[in-house]
Amino acid sequence: MGIIEDFKRNKASYLMIAPYMLLFTIFTLIPVVASIFLSFTNYNMLQPPKWVGWTNYVRLFLADKIFLKVLRNTFIFAFITGPISYLMSFILAWFISEFNPKVRAILTLIFYSPSLAGNVFFIWAFIFSGDTYGLINGWLMRWGILKEPINWLQDPNYVLWVIIVVQLWLSLGAGFLAFVAGFQNLDRELFEAGAIDGIKNRFQELWYITIPQMAPQLMFGAVMQIGASFGVSTVVMALGGLPTRQYSADTVVTYLIDYGTVRFEMGYASAIAVVLFIAMLLTNKAIAAILRRYSTD
Amino acid sequence: MAKGFSYSYKKVNRSVYGNIVIFIILFIVGIFMALPLLYTVVSAFKPLDEIFIFPPRLYVRRPTLDNFVLMFQLATNMWVPFSRYLFNSLFICVVGTIGHILIASLAAYPLAKHQFAAKKVINEIIVLALLFTPQVTYIPLYIVMSRLHLIDTYWALILPSWQMTLGLYLMKQFMTQIPDSLLEAGKIDGANELKIWWRIVMPNVKPAWLTLTIFSFQYLWNQTGGSFIFSENLKVLPTLLSQIAAGGIARAGVGAAVALFLMIPPIILFVISQSSVMETMVTSGIK
């Protein structure tokens, strides 16, 4: 069947998708394609872009020491907070599933409410405030652990870790909800059959019965998690500033915002964006391969 | 349609030790999650002198509404009245959410239920786009917005929210559960696709609507406007929050009052729609 015939026959379908695809093209596809194109140019938004080939990428990896630092920070976020919050989402959802529906609903709300509350993470700025009015400093000093307050958000030794904590606090998102829902819809008979077949404890139950059944939800959770952990930026800028002291907690995204909005080196910023996007795609492919192998066993 | 949600499977193989471990872990994580929110609530009701107490307290001795009064006063002195920020936020949330639900479910129906050549490709693009954080295209997005003259209008926040992939994806997944026989019955009665969508599909996906409402509202309500909104009279509540929070410790109480004001609507909305959200998320898996 030719493309034109397909279109004629399914005109209604295509017309219904059209408004969405139009917006998607304008606000997602075009920007992605433009990013890739701009990454090979010098562009300051005033003069037209000038083609420079791989120059931006060469500079990024060979000449830009700060980029390597923010790359390291990003990988710390992606490979520490990512897996921790993924596991946390899954384990909490698993624990919650043991309770009756009312308690389960309340626990789900408690764990999900930081994500709902969104911008409220600024309260962490007061908790980790650098003076004695900060909750953490205040407590540590009262207990005699600290003599002088620590400037948590300005000291390059601490700010990355503080932001990891806040990011973990915020990280139980749509993936967590998918897990909670997934646990409720497992095939009950399999557990009874499993018990007869000699499954002894809930860990075996989880490993042999639950996880294979939940592979699709686990994949969804992974995709959402990758986006969230590679995209860490709002919290960094709100708590540490733009840029953070000595770039100690800057990520690829804040670095590209720095280049894009402060220095107006759009071509360079776009190269940063492309590198990030490729890193996300590769991680996604790796996780998909692992989950697929496990779930078809 | 959706499998009954509230059953819990027969509990076998459960040990007391396991239960204790679960309680302890849930308790610790629960405290970690709830404490900052609790601290926000408590701080919002603290009088000025209690904010400056050393060591800082997690409770309030003499609760007061001063912070809320001050919140309105401060906002009034900030170029535009508080009601304007509130109106802006509500307008963006309502128009953004309604548009998102309509456009996403209109596109989701054929993607879930029709057969056509581009379907597979579009579905794959959407899964890929789920991965995507919008910050990555920050710069070209700004250029696109400014070419379309959307900078400094409500639409700079509303239009991108209409194409959020998560909403379309969840809606599409949920729609695949609608029995084909139901749609065929509509066709036999002579309804066209648009009518089938509106009369048969939409009433059957109410849980998905509510879920999209939650996600869309939550996203829009927390939008700061970033570099797309400059006019003071178009700014939204989170901007007000960040302006007040920038005042440091002296403004901690007012900041907490604004934060409390901001976090309540999405939480209430979630409480109301939680069971629908769960019903929708059951179908969220990527195969």
TrEMBL record, chain A:
Origin: domain of life: Bacteria
Record's bilayer topology term: Multi-pass membrane protein
Any Pfam family matching the protein: BPD_transp_1
Keyword annotations: Cell membrane, Membrane, Transmembrane, Transmembrane helix, Transport
Transmembrane stretches, start-end: 12-40, 75-97, 109-127, 158-181, 218-242, 262-283
Coiled coil start-end: none
SUPFAM superfamilies, sorted: MetI-like (SSF161098)
Boundaries of every ABC transmembrane type-1 domain copy: 71-287
Family designation: Belongs to the binding-protein-dependent transport system permease family.
Record-given protein name: Sugar ABC transporter permease
TrEMBL record, chain B:
ABC transmembrane type-1 domain sequence ranges: 86-273
Keyword check for Transport: yes
Alphabetical keyword list: Cell membrane, Membrane, Transmembrane, Transmembrane helix, Transport
Pfam families for the chain: BPD_transp_1 (PF00528)
Cell membrane among keywords: yes
Membrane-crossing segments per the record: 20-42, 86-109, 121-141, 153-171, 208-229, 249-272
Annotated Gene3D superfamilies: MetI-like
CDD domains: TM_PBP2
N-terminal signal peptide: none
Protein name: Carbohydrate ABC transporter permease
Record organism: Anaerocellum danielii
Lineage: Bacteria, Bacillati, Bacillota, Bacillota incertae sedis, Caldicellulosiruptorales
